[in-house]
Amino acid sequence: MRNRTALTLLITALLAGCSGGGDSADSGTDPEASVAAETTANASGEAAARGAADVEAPGQVNQPPTGDTDRKIVRNGTLRILVDDVEESFDEIMAMTETSRGYVEQANLTPPRDGGRKGRGRLVLRVPADDVDAIMGDIEDLAVQVVESTLSAEDRTGQYVDLESRLTTLQSARDELRALLTEIRERPDATAGQILEVLSEVTAVETQIEQIQGRLANIDDLVAFATVTVQLRTAQGTAPLVDESWAPGATARDSGRDLVERLQGLTDIVIRIGIGVVPILLIVLAVPALILWLVVRARRPRGDAEPIGPLSPSVGGRAPANPASDESGGDQPS
């Protein structure tokens, strides 16, 4: 973007110089026009040089800040503590933060359940960086046990100096562009395209300036106010052995009520199944069962019929001979 800005300005200056030269040739030697063109070219050349100087060469490393530069140190702390009463400690930490000219960025509190002291809380504090050690120490004094306590520092000086350098360069380029825009508008032969081109570059540079100013303001805020995250939990040893709100009779009544409700629900389910489902199943299964029974009965083998008695001679069979009797009916030998 910066190379493009410098190149655009340089081309605009050359075009202005050429147009000024053509006017002088047509109207004769005009010293004032020559001086104006030369002034425009000089202003454009300075803007181009400053814009080109703002472009970092590939692989260039930012110069370390000198000893006279104020260090930009961002400090972040974390505290995890166990307390006797979460609600009371939560309120004390908030009051402590406001007293130290800080503010609470986030606050979440889970109240105790059923009157017990088993709540928990979380706070994100923004406190003056110079007082962060003392404030963290005061918070630790509220704890029965400190589970975790950390404090880190991050040096943002190099980033800050680099942003300031870029901001100065962009502001200088913006001023030169504004001066050039004024000169172009004052020319009688200036075109709308030239004015809009320079005005577009001015807008682009001002946008970059605002972005860098926002980043610088963010770093200043982080440096001025340290961020401390505090997590609170109830110490297990401080919880009462028997909760004061414990009522066995109420628990028994609630359990009996729950049992009755479940039995009622189960009875309702059985009734619905017996009335609405069983008859349908019987109707659906009756026909296949009947068909199956008929098929099985048809395929079952039948047994042979047993003889009722000896065949009679009248039926067509001959009666068996009696060896003890004579066909003629005579007397048998003695």
Short description:
With 334 residues, the protein is α+β, with helices and mostly antiparallel strands. 56% of the residues lie in helices and 15% in strands. The protein has a five-stranded mixed β-sheet with strand order 2-3-5-1-4.
Characteristics:
single chain; 334 residues; alpha+beta; 3 domains; five-stranded mixed beta sheet; 5 strands; 15% strand; flat; disordered C terminus
Q: What does this molecule look like?
A:
The protein is α+β, with helices and mostly antiparallel strands and 334 residues long. It has three domains: 1-55; 71-169 and 191-239, no CATH class; 254-285. It contains seven helices and five strands, in the order ααβαββαβααβα. Strands 2-3-5-1-4 form a five-stranded mixed sheet. The radius of gyration is 53 Å and the shape is flat. Mean pLDDT is 75; it is low at 14-62 and 324-334.
